[in-house]
Amino acid sequence: MRILSVIDIPWNSGLAAYAFDQARALRAGGHGVVFACPEGSAAEAFAAREGFSHYSIPGRKAYHRLPLALLRLRAIARDERIDIVAAHTGRAQTLAYLLGLPVVRVKADAKKPSAGFTFSAVASTIVASACIQDMYLRTGLTPAKISVIRQGITPPAALPRVPRPPYRVGLLGRLDLVKGHVLFLEAAAELLRAGARAEFHVAGYEANIKYEGLRSTAKELGIEKDVFLHGKVDGPFDFMNSCDIGVIASLGSEAVSRAALEWLAAGRPLVSTSVGSLPEYVGTPWLVPPGDAAALAEKIGRLLADPDLQRAEGAANRARAERDFSPAAFAAATCAAFEGAV
Q: Which residues contact 295 (CB under 8 A, 6 or more apart)?
């Protein structure tokens, strides 16, 4: 089967990462994948690096160039003998509808979906979480047309860590208000006031907030000597393996959470808010309402007080990553969804 993967955003994101894993899975299953993506985009860089054919199309915000994008896609579909289109955004779905080819709508982001007229061309919908599936069901789409296929992950080499004080509690994520960094620091302050023997570590690239702002917040809370800011890191696992406990403090979004999957694969206990897809990865005993610093501190405190519990929860998380989120299972489900759509 020849598949045209249309991803018209320039940046790297959970949506893009899902598209890349999907392309790898389809190629491993014997199918051909061709990318249509903006020039200079993360998708173009991925396709070039991994040997996928790729063509440039105008980005999603170039509305005046929509006719050019359609003409370009028609030429690609003809020249590459495309059988089916994987549409990763709403605009890509519209373009795929105008091509007149079968469409698999792939959704791995938090934007509210719409079952408009272009959905008549959609043969199947792949969603990256049950959270996204619920969004579609609320639009009236029938469950039979939706496949929930969560990303797989290959766990890193096991690096068991012997928990000993001061315990390292870590949050990895881009610096954005929705990621709850201030909530994390407020929970840290509450724990430290209560005598917790812990350090609190933050890593990730700056987005809508800056590290200087987090330093100021830590100073205002009186915890600056116990807070360590690492900046952008090269891959997640070195940072995660250096921690005893992982935290996701997000206040919203998280339609897909790669970070949750990575904490599980790293074999670390994980405390998380209950937004978006996070309950699909984190057990109920370790979930807290978004924005509740006291509840977050209480859950982290339970783990800080019991090193044996830390080890047990970490081992259980790694076992679940290996059992429920294997790349082989992701690949098999992905190929089956596309093969069933033509």
A: 288, 289
Rg (CA), the chain: 21
| CATH class, 167-324 region | alpha beta
* 308-316, long-range: CB < 8 A, 24+ apart: 309/269, 310/163, 310/167, 310/244, 310/245, 310/269, 311/160, 311/163, 313/269, 313/270, 313/286, 314/267, 314/268, 314/269, 315/267
Q: pLDDT (tens digit, 9 = 90+) per residue, 278-310? A: 999 999 999 999 999 999 999 999 999 999 999
CA dist list (Å): 149 to 122, 136, 269, 332, 338 = 17, 14, 24, 10, 12
**CB neighbours of residue 181 within 10 Å:** 25
113-to-72, 119, 125, 188, 333 alpha-carbon distances in Å? 26, 11, 11, 37, 22
Give the whole-angstrom CA distance, residue 296 versus residue 248.
10
CATH architecture of structural domain 2-152+326-339: 3-Layer(aba) Sandwich (3.40)
Percent of the chain with pLDDT over 70: 98
**Rounded-to-integer distance, Cα 120 and Cα 145, Å:** 12
- Alpha carbon of 306 to those of 4, 132, 167, 320: distances in Å? 51, 35, 11, 21
Taking alpha carbons only, the member of 154, 245, 146, 263 closest to residue 196 is 245
Give start-end residues of each CATH 3.40.50.2000 domain in the chain: 2-152+326-339, 167-324
Give the integer Cα–Cα distance in Å for 275 and 253.
7
Rounded to whole angstroms, the Cα distance separating 136 from 185 reads 35
Q: Positive or negative, the Cα torsion across 85, 89, 91, 93? A: positive
* 246 Cβ contact partners less than 8 Å away, ≥ 6 residues apart: 169, 170, 171, 172, 240, 263, 266, 268, 269, 270, 271
